[in-house]
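re: that complex we talked abt at group meeting.

here r the seqs, copy pasted straight from the sheet so there may be weird spacing, ignore it
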Amino acid sequence: MNLPEHIAIIMDGNGRWAKKRLLPRMMGHRKGSENLKKLINDCDALGLKHITFYAFSTENWKRPQEEVSNLMDLLREYLNDHIKNEKENNFKIDFIGDMSRLAPDIQEKMKYVRELYSAHKGIFVHIAMNYGSRDEITRAVKRIAEEVKAGDIEPDRITEETIAKRLDTKDIPDPELLIRTSGEQRLSNFLMWQLAYSEFYFSDKLWPDFKVEDLLEAVESFNNRERRFGGRNEVK
Ligand code: IPE
Ligand code: IPE
Ligand code: MG
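got the structure back, here u go
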């Protein structure tokens, strides 16, 4: 099986997972977070290079305050767990999105964990937290405007690379494959620039139930796709 270099995942369906079991939504998020930990280690064992997870969108602040604060507490727990169990984890980790809107203690923990894991040799995990593609592109455009104003960039010289280098994903290859769980078929403001030519795979599994076997099914489907990038693959 041909593994893509980078897979991006929209982890959706925690709420429905809990609802089906008549549990509070928070239990769904908790199960989702446990599943994330497990899947990361399974993907590391597969030998995948990069994986990006959509954990909290710039639109998720619209949810009831109680849910938002529960999700932030879960993130704290998640980061603490990474600090405590550093020795058992082989992966590298960083975060994309606008960190500045997150609580200062969370920002600190994120930086700390990123540093702590930076010498690891395994899969590179990217967590999208307060991430929105439109917000990311807007931030990049502001930076370019500042650089133009300062005389560091000529408007004529702006290329796709100028933009890509100012996105949060500047050092990461574009994902070849996007997976969304829970049956929804939309991007919800995720990686719109980076997914321009990616293959999409939608799974009906709710996120807490999505296992490495399901990911491998997505990879198998990806292996059967013909990617053309706007060109023609057949020899004339
Ligand atoms: C995804 O699960 C997790 C986050 C967006 C934080 P949801 O909470 O969106 O679950 P559903 O879509 O309501 O089932
Ligand atoms: C997308 O899921 C965001 C994350 C998974 C973090 P949502 O559940 O927020 O998306 P919509 O509202 O159904 O589009
Ligand atoms: Mg959802």
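couple things i noticed - The chain has a mean pLDDT of 97. Residues 11-16, 56, 60, 71, 182 surround IPE (ligand 1) (CB under 6 Å).
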